[in-house]
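Consider the tokenized backbone below.
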């Protein structure tokens, strides 16, 4: 559901039906700048807000602007107190699907191709299935209006219970062979009453997977993705920026080890 104006939204997802304490409870806020959050009046979940916009056929950004109130919060204090949660959830975590598409950029395609390259009978290097799929995406991944594009590689990571709040710990099972973080751009969708998916924003995410397990056998790709992940804390309501850049690091004991 592309909005008509840019904006960011941040939230503290909790069960919509759960009782809220008189002092506190979850809030939805509009990010004004790096220091300030403006609370939305009468709004407790981004999910409920998105469904209101979908039902009314209204851009979500316009609804956010109209619901913005006078109460402001110190953004840094909210972060420091660990009160940020992902910017979209579902009242029932089992009804939230966390999925991904692979081979969506040159780096991943080249690495996967190197892992699974095979030699043709005539002695010439043949394209692996991974590279063939990547090229199919380049050629048909963005079809003209009214035409169906090629389907991407797709994997399932879990349901809403697997999502870790921003700043939270990404736990590894004891049988894991690796814990590899992967910065991603996440598309956030809500299913409307008409059964159709509506995009309600974008967020940065950490895909987190087991690359050592994946390299052991290509058919273990699905297993390697079954790990906790995170996204947020903010949600971009406008169209995705043409250029998204950043840096990634791993800390251990306060020290940067990678």
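A designed sequence for it:
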């Amino acid at each position: 559901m592309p909005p008509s104006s840019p904006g960011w939204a941040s939230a503290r997802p909790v069960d919509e039906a759960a009782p809220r304490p008189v002092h506190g409870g979850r809030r939805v806020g509009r990010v004004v700048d790096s220091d300030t959050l403006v609370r939305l009046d009468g709004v407790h979940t981004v999910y409920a807000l998105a469904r209101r916009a979908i039902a009314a056929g209204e851009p979500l950004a316009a609804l956010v602007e109209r619901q913005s109130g006078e109460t402001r919060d110190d953004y840094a204090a909210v972060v420091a107190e660990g009160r940020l949660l992902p910017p979209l959830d579902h009242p029932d975590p089992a009804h939230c699907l966390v999925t991904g598409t692979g081979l969506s950029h040159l780096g991943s395609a080249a690495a996967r191709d190197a892992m699974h390259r095979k030699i043709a009978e005539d002695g010439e290097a043949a394209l692996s299935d991974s590279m063939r799929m990547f090229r199919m995406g380049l050629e048909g991944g963005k079809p003209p209006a009214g035409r169906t594009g090629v389907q991407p590689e797709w994997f399932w990571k879990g349901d809403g219970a697997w999502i870790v709040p921003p700043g939270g710990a990404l736990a590894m099972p004891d049988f894991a062979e690796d814990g590899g973080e992967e910065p991603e751009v996440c598309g956030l969708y809500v299913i409307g009453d008409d059964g159709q998916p509506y995009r309600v924003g974008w967020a940065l995410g950490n895909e987190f997977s087991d690359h050592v397990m994946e390299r052991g056998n290509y058919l273990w790709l699905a297993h390697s993705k079954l790990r906790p992940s995170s996204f947020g804390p903010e949600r971009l309501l406008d169209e995705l920026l043409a250029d998204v850049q950043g840096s990634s690091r791993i800390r251990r004991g306060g020290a940067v080890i990678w």
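Residues 1-23, 118-124 have pLDDT under 50 and may be disordered.
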